Every structure is written in C-alpha cells, then in structure tokens.
Amino acid sequence: MNAIIYTEYGSPDKLSFREIEKPTPNDDEVLIKIHAVSLNQADWHRLTADIFLIRLGNGFMKPKQHRLGADIAGRVEAVGKNVKQFQVGDAVFGDISTNGFGGLAEYVTVPEKLVALKPSNLSFEQVAAVPMAGVTALQGLRDYGKIQAGQNVLIQGAAGGVGTFAVQIAKMYGAHVTAVCSARNLDQARALGADRVLDYTKSDFTREGKQYDLILAANGYHALADYKRALTPDGICVIAGGTFRAFIDVMLFGGWHSRGAQKIKFFLAEQSQADLQFLAAQLATGKIKSVIDRCYPLNETREAFRYIGGGHARGKIIITI
Questions:
Q1: 3-class DSSP state for residue 210?
Q2: Distances from the Cα of 207 to the Cαs of 130, 200, 230, in angstroms?
Q3: Are residues 258 and 313 in the same domain?
Q4: Is 255 helix (H, G, I), strand (E, B) or coil?
C-alpha cells in the first residue's frame, strides 16, 4: 500500500511517498481503508520537532515512529476476532494518535475503541475534520471550562480547526461568544455564530477592559497575567495548545495564578468514543459543521504540510485517499 513516511525531523521536504506492507488487524483491531485524513498541528510538530518535548517522546535525533496522520475516516475492510462494535463495510472515523498515528496511508489498523460510526448523511471529509479538533473544543469548553448558558465566552484562534468548532459548540451551549481571529476570517466567525468578532491585529482583547467568564485559547500566546486580566473574578481560561512558552508558563506558574477563584488550565484532549459519537450527532443534525479550507490528494501531502505550516489555514486541511 502507499503511505507517507518520514525518517528525519524537518521541513515537509522530509516526507516521502512510499510503498509499504499492508497491515493485518490484531484480535481487538479493525482494518480500515482510508478515504480522508485531516491534518493537525500535532502532525506539524511531530514532523518538525519544533517543540522540544516531541524529541523526548519520539526520539531525540531521529523519529522512532515514521508515520503521521491522526484524524481518519474510512471503511472497515476486516475485523479481529474479538471486535464487537463494527463489521466489514461500516464507515467509521476517529483519532488514532495514541496508536502511533499512521493515517496518511491507504490502510491502517486500530483498536475498535478509537473509532465511531460515520453518520450516513456526512462525507468522509466532513467527519475526518472532527476528531482531534472537535474533541479538543468540546472537552475544553465543557469539561475544563465548565461552560454555562448565558456566559460571556471568548474563543482565541477562532479561525483554526479547534476554534471553528469551539465557536459553534459555545453557541450550542447558549453562550454569548466573542471570536478572535484575523480580518480575513471575521465574516467566517460571524457565519459560525459568533456574536462579536475581534481582529487581533487591531485589538488586544486582554487590554480592552472587557472581562469574560470563560476564555478558550486555541494555540494561546499571551502571558498568563494578560489572560487573568481578561477574566471575571471567578472566570476560567483554558489553553489548548500554543507556544512552548505558554506551556511552560502554565506548568511553572499556573498554580500561582489559579490560587483564587480565577483558574488557568492547560490541557490535552483525551480520546473518547462517546465524544466522537456526540459530535457526529451534532453534525448530522446540522447543529455544528466542519469548516474545510482545502483538500489535497495523498501524493501532494508535502504541499498540504507547507500550507498548514504557514499558520493561516481556515478550519481544516484534508488529505483524500
């Protein structure tokens, strides 16, 4: 089968299009013929090792795991003898990052607990966009942010994969939503339901004097003190991804800044089949939608990575197979 492989950290030029052996599912796994994969910042970080912690987990000088692609959508082609939830022919989607990535290929084997059924009225591209970004937005707002109807909620990075889902999910929970993004994405944020939009090149929400009950910072980059200034006295700031500095600040000083009623939290989403099913139901009924910027065929994966590396993707980038 064809697959995308990398054996060195670096630019998208390190990616190669190769023929490798087609996998066989273990007893608790399903073999999936891939139709679509969405790229995430996690893929970019694993390729470039621009965050030092990547090297600690995947090899200091060279990657131990040579595959990329976490968010997949496809059709079950074979099942292991212990698989109970799925059968051959089922259309499924999921996040396979804890299984070593590997979605940028024609086939992949994964434990059945990592995937969920695709609604029949959605395309493979639509559901491939959901797993990592959608679950991050959902868990960040619901589980870490404790979102409530009527709250003033700010989404920083509202044009990206996590941000586009977060704006819609916050509205679904009945919040008044302020979306922060660049000028070219303001209309998109409004179309997704944002009540108020801010162009971050012209207005710094941490210094405008307005306070929010909940801030979801997708790829946050402000200092923790700045986020605190923009929170209500008992507000919560949830940082999902971002610069290495932001991660270190929360690890070292998050407890200090969260001594009172205000809370600042950095989190990584947990894979959840139940949350995949919940999001699929919202997409199927039109309560939320996937925002897809561009689609590329598998043999143009380098170009797709160059685009996502530019930092200006609007929603999700999809690889079709």
A1: coil
A2: 33, 11, 7
A3: no
A4: helix
Flag whether 274 is in a domain.
Answer: no
Written as six digits, the tokens of 84 are 């109970």
> Domain tally for the chain?
2
Q: Which residues pair with 17 in a beta bridge?
A: 4
The pTM (predicted TM-score) of the whole model is 0.93
Q: Give the residue carrying structure tokens 């939608």.
A: 289
Distance CA 170, CA 155 (A): 9
DSSP string of 70-112, one letter each residue: -EEEEEEEEE-TT--S--TT-EEEEE-GGGT---SBSEEEEEG
pLDDT tens digits, one per residue of 127-184: 999 999 999 999 999 999 999 999 999 999 999 999 999 999 999 999 999 999 999 9
> What separation, in Å, do the N-terminal and C-terminal C-alpha atoms of the chain show?
11
DSSP string of 7-37, one letter each residue: SS-SSGGG-EEEE-PPP---TTEEEEEEEEE
Find out whether 200 and 182 touch, Cβ atoms under 8 Å.
yes
- CATH for 188: 3.40.50.720
For residue 221, with 0-12 CB atoms within 10 Å meaning exposed, 13-18 middle and 19 or more buried, which class applies?
middle
> Domain range for residue 109?
2-129+290-320
